[in-house]
Design brief:
membrane; transmembrane; 0% strand; Na/ntran_symport; Hydantoin permease; binds phenylalanine; 470 residues; mainly alpha; SNS_sf; globular
């Protein structure tokens, strides 16, 4: 059968640097800045480190090598790539992972929209307590800390809908010419987010008492080692943080030359990602401890109430300090944007590969449900029921989707990828393909990691989560 998309039309990275920037830009996102810190806090600071570190070596890096190799071996996005390597079942797993990607993209972009709206708001008095909004605000100024009131005033305006549309438009612009435009974007945004994050770390550490938070984060604490939930949290966080299981890394690797060194690339991308995550943890914990803030109440409240309250103080602190709030939201927006772009690229390139349609059409096909979903999540009455009595976000549609995607879907895709590639294609074929071009040669043990060890761990995590849920 004729291939509908000759490789020349699919795009290719200009340089290895372009690929590393794009893949690390995908990996570094909201997951690194807020999800990691709130997980680390929830699971007791130092107690989270060891499981997380183990998750990186036992599962994160091997699965990234696997996904990069699937991309470079086939030159296709995840459904056709897994289809080529492992037959119809493989293709099915690929489409399934993209269905999860679509769901995750919807709410990921809603969060980015909120961050953008708050960014705009932090320049003026748009969402100040008492600001009038078209919808009923959910909090009286006296009910919560300032940043909460700001957030809920913001939700009650039209701003989130505008901001969500802007983020989607930016995503489309960055994807307009595929690798060419992605590369242009990441060359600016990825270095910029490192600069901003390092600025926040310096700010956090130079505040009086800032180092106490860092001590909490880095003091080894072996209590957590026996708690299965800590391990589950660490594995789920690692998957999401490294952008695995959603077709992203396969798509990005499919634009690499066939002889790329996948071991080297995986090590680079995962170390850049985890390095960023650790320093983000330092910045956030320093700020939390200085202001004696409690990040309980979930990831959303951490990013929108707690950290901004600490960093920005909003109208309570002098303008100079307030500007750090601007940096924080700007950082969220650019770090998240390069991740959102990669999520959408995974889906769009799959449609291009499968249907042989133009990029513009593929983007339209992804964006129609995507934009509708993000706007829905941003509607005030969707957020409204999320408010629990103490002003934190509670159990909602939002949390439900997040829980389903985060805890089940990604891990299931990873598990099936390992089983299909390990047993149907044969892990030794993957290893041979990797070793042909990599300086560091994978040992035969890698085969058993893919066939048995990783599936057993992921299966264990899934069953554990299911057991807790029912
Ligand atoms: N890794 C990104 C983050 O940490 C999220 C993401 C997941 C992006 C999967 C693409 C694919 O925010």
């Amino acid at each position: 059968m004729a291939d509908p998309t000759p490789d020349a039309n699919r795009g290719a990275w200009n340089s290895k640097l372009g690929f590393i920037l794009a893949a690390s830009g995908s990996a570094i996102g909201l997951g690194n800045i807020v999800f990691f810190a709130s997980n680390a806090y929830q699971y007791g600071g130092g107690a989270f480190y060891l499981p997380y570190f183990i998750a990186l070596f036992v599962m994160g890096i091997p699965i990234m090598i696997l996904e990069f190799t699937v991309g470079t071996m086939t030159g296709r996005s995840i459904p056709l790539a897994l289809g080529k390597l492992a037959g119809k079942k493989g293709e099915f797993v690929g489409w399934w992972s993209l269905a999860s990607a679509l769901t995750i993209t919807m709410y990921y972009i809603t969060i980015l929209g909120w961050a953008l709206a708050m960014l705009v708001g932090s320049f003026g008095s748009l969402f100040e307590p008492g600001a009038t909004a078209p919808f009923e605000p959910f909090l009286e100024p006296s009910e919560g800390v300032n940043s909460q009131v700001w957030f809920f005033n913001m939700i009650a305006t039209w701003w989130p809908l505008v901001a969500v549309s802007v983020i989607w438009a930016l995503t489309a612009i960055l994807l307009w010419k595929g690798t060419e435009t992605i590369e242009k974007g990441v060359r600016v945004f990825v270095p910029l987010m490192w600069v901003f994050m390092i600025g926040l770390v310096i700010h956090g550490l130079t505040l009086p008492g800032g180092t106490d938070g860092v001590a909490y984060l880095f003091t080894p604490n072996l209590d957590g080692i026996t708690d299965i939930q800590v391990w589950q949290g660490a594995f789920a966080q690692m998957f999401f943080s490294l952008s695995l299981g959603l077709g992203t890394m396969v798509a990005y690797a499919s634009y690499l030359p066939r002889d790329a060194d996948n071991v080297n690339n995986s090590l680079l991308v995962s170390f850049l990602n985890c390095g960023f995550e650790y320093i983000a943890g330092i910045a956030i914990f320093a700020i939390l401890f200085v202001y004696a803030l409690n990040p309980a109440g979930g990831t959303l409240s951490l990013s929108f109430f707690v950290i901004p309250q600490g960093i920005a103080g909003f109208s309570e602190l002098p303008l100079l300090v307030k500007s750090f709030g601007v940096f924080f939201f700007f950082l969220l927006v650019i770090a998240g944007l390069t991740s959102a772009v990669s999520l959408v690229e995974g889906m769009a390139s799959a449609l291009i590969d499968k249907l042989g349609i133009s990029r513009a059409r593929a983007l339209a096909l992804v964006m129609t449900p995507g934009v509708a979903g993000s706007l829905t999540f941003a509607l005030p009455f969707i957020v409204d029921p999320a408010l629990s009595g103490d002003g934190t976000l509670g159990f909602t549609l939002f949390d439900l989707v997040d829980h389903w995607a985060f805890r089940y879907s990604l891990i299931t895709v990873g598990l099936l990828e390992c089983l299909l590639l390990g047993w149907v294609l044969g892990a030794e074929k993957i290893r041979a393909a990797v070793n042909e071009h990599s300086k560091f040669k994978l040992p035969a043990f890698f085969d058993w990691m893919i066939k048995l060890i990783i599936p057993a761990i992921l299966g264990f995590v899934l069953i554990g989560t299911l057991y807790e849920d029912i």
